Amino acid sequence: MGYGGSLTLLNGSPHDWTLSGQHSYQMDAWTWPTISAGKAARVYVEFGTKGHAGDDAGEAYYNIADTVNHFQIKGRKPSDYMLTISLDGMSTKQSQQGANIDLGFRHDAAVDWIMSTDEAGDWWSNSGMTTDWMQQGMGSLGNRTLKQICMPGSHDAGMGTFKAGTVGAHFANSQTQYLDIYGQLMAGSRYFDIRPVISSGQWVAGHYSEVENVWLGGNGQALSDMIKQINDFTKQYKELVIINLSHTLDTDNDYKDLTQDQWNKLFDTLKVVNNRFTVNNPGKEDFSNHVLGDFITDGASVFIVAQLPGGISLGDYANQGFFNQDNFPVYDSYSNSNDVSNMEKDQLAKLKTERNLVANAGQRKDKFHLLSWTLTQQAEDVLNFDKAIMNLAVSVYDDLFVNAFNSFTPESLPNVLYIDAVGIRDKSVVFPYDKPRSVSTNYDIASLAIAVNNAMAGRNGYITGG
Q1: Of 29, 81, 391, 439, which is most buried by a Cβ count within 10 Å?
Q2: Which InterPro entries match (predicted)?
Q3: Which segments of 260-415 are extended strands (E)?
């Protein structure tokens, strides 16, 4: 038996990637297919065990049909297993011609090569760190409404750490994110589910749920820290950041809903968020109908929307950069399942049913759509640390790039790739379960969103005006 893993090839372009040749030495599996335009394939690779392991090697050569561009895949084992992309015949926005991009290798899991181009074919983007991806893509994204753009999103974004809450709460069943808010922003996330609660008189992120009249959960980052990190990011990068406030509680007072006065104090606390998007008298205007260029032409923009319960109003805060659910309607329906197959079928079926981006207004379904690619702990999982929230998250990460991407169409694509554990793809909760272990960060989720914008939305004439 050899040592196997996979390479996902995601073709976010209108051109097939055709194999021009391949050969290998001491590789037990090294066979490469054509990758059709707008599709992804997971290719199994296995390094051999015979002979000198350090001699294992393979090459595969791809041409990009109808262009002069070509690239090469290399498999090597100099000191560790490695898959590398050689841009020997093309360049991208992130990588110059001749660059070698090391993707690593994951045993029994996948690494990703994502490459896409916008509808004009003016520039190519590839896997790698694309922190200011909105600005990089403004040529094609600037005139699209937010309903027509895909972005990564962070579920329970403020839970990038864990601080003691109720009896039974533990980081394995309460912490949803490995990175803090700044780290998630750097990884490309642009939609943030933040759940402010009052705990010991302070505003913090909370992750609480009521089970049979008993509240369970814990706290994450302090709101003041999250605000600072958002401000630090928008000082550097001219991107749109959407903050969705929900699940607010007063944990100091029997987990009651916030009063109007407490909501007002929350808004006052959030006034120190810089670059807030503001308009006078927004009424019930749907700002997801605005184009991206309305938000970030001259600088960064932070759009704050609060899911207000009955009896609570924005008052004059509506003129100060705060909006309610009428101003940003969202389709948000999670699967509430810990089963991979059930979750994926549920989310992809909902996407197919709820999204139809067509010119005919009578047939169009375009509510801002969250693809909740999240597994939810069930009662039997709460004390099973191997099924920690972040472990469940990475167990479905690889499927985003094949199963999900191959289900998207130009007329049916998500607005938010909504996930836990943004920025990682390996288990971080392992024995002795005292804290998350250190794992490497990964920014492919942003490259995936770029590919959806290019390969799917970019081929929709209603969206592009073509």
Answers
A1: 391
A2: PI-PLC_domain, PLC-like_Pdiesterase_TIM-brl
A3: 301-306, 323-324, 330-332, 368-372
Residue 22 near residue 59, CB atoms below 8 Å: yes
Which one, of 123, 184, 160, 176, lies nearest residue 446 by Cα? 184
Using the CB atoms, write b or e for 164-202: b if 16+ within 10 Å.
Answer: ebeeebbbbbbbbbbbbbbbbbbbbbbbbbbbbbbbeee
pLDDT grade, residue 51 (50/70/90)? very low
> Which helix (H) or strand (E) is 242 found in, with range?
strand 240-245
CA neighbours closer than 13 Å in the CB half-sphere of residue 6: 16
Q: What is the mean pLDDT of residues 412-440?
A: 96
- 107 φ, ψ (degrees, to nearest 5): -65, 125
- For position 277, what pLDDT does the model report? 98
Whole-number Å distance between alpha carbons of 436 and 139: 40
pLDDT at 212: 80
Q: How far apart are CA 13 and CA 456, in angstroms?
A: 9
Long-range Cβ contacts of 322-326 (<8 Å, 24+ apart): 322/267, 322/270, 322/276, 323/282, 323/287, 326/284, 326/286
Rg, the chain, Cα only: 23
Fold of 3-119: Mutm (Fpg) Protein; Chain: A, domain 2 (2.60.270)
What's the CA gap between 288 and 254, in Å, rounded?
Answer: 36
CATH class of 136-464: alpha beta
Segments making up each domain of the chain, as ranges = 3-119, 136-464
CA atoms within 13 A on the CB side of 238: 13
Backbone angles phi, psi at 173, to 5 degrees: -110, 5
Chain CA centroid to CA 17, Å: 26
